[in-house]
Write a structure and sequence with these properties.
By secondary structure, the chain is an alpha+beta fold. It has two domains: 2-146, FAS1 domain (Roll); 157-295, Roll (FAS1 domain), CATH 2.30.180.10. It is 38% helix and 26% strand. The chain is built from 14 helices and 14 strands. The strands form two sheets. A seven-stranded mixed β-sheet has the order 2-1-7-6-5-4-3. Strands 9-8-14-13-12-11-10 form a seven-stranded mixed β-sheet. A hairpin with a 2-residue loop joins strand 11 and strand 12 (258-261). Helix 10 (168-177) packs across helix 13 and helix 11 crosses helix 12. The longest helix has 15 residues, at 2-16.
Length: 297
Amino acid sequence: MLLLLALVLPCVLAQSNYTIIDCLKASSREQVLVSLIQQAGLTDVLATGGPFTLFAPDDAAIRALPSDTLAMLKNDSNALAEILKYHVVSGTFKMADLKVNELMLETLAGDQLRINDYMFNHRLTVDGAPITYADKVCSNGVIHRISRVLMAPKGTVVDVLQADGHFSTLLAAAQATGLVDALQEGPITLMAPVDSAFSRLGNDTVSKLLANPDILAEVLKYHVIHGALYAAGMHSEYLNTLEPNDRERLYASFSGYTVVVDGARVTQKDLSATNGVVHKIDHVLIPSSLKAKIAAL
């Protein structure tokens, strides 16, 4: 037993003397990240500063970025540094410290990361990206490996809709019903029908809904869920919306890797906002209790 301790203890001590940079260099899965940190001029900060918590995208996550985005970052060290700093939090936060749903952590970039602890499927996410390997303890902090490169949200849910360019009808509906402010509070999840989804209802129906803000408000509230629900935290479940109705709730299900909500397909997942998350959907969701009212308009 003493011999075993004598063999193991030096390894443990040596590992604890590794800085965050040393730990990354020793891993075969973060070599691209190391090169980007060097290019951004952040090596000394992560080697001598701290303590820090680093949410480290592995090489596969970085290579999964669109080629034009990766090329832009490699040609703009300042932009690259800001994105990398968004992955770093001052202080040491181990996995046990992160198990607080909707925990917000300020990054070195000055923005806030959203931590979600989804108890049903035992997933812990950072801005929707699952932590795939946790608690790599270093001498000046801790590393958690994540499966996606994180990009700081550019504003609220409303800002996300405006910047996307495919939600003009949804934004007009929110304006007509006075729900713009509600979409800037949170945390919320918005199942957001794109313009083509409203087109499927027909111009006549859309016009009648815009002219009847009370019914339209009920429709829109049915698309809004309490809390930030990223795709990684979803499972086949009923979801509580801003339109309270114990007998009629959204139902999320899965078909392969596709998420379906009340029959509408989620066409793009996990658009992060400062007050929650947006998922694009291809149909407008109509509660059964409203279908007769809308038909009678």
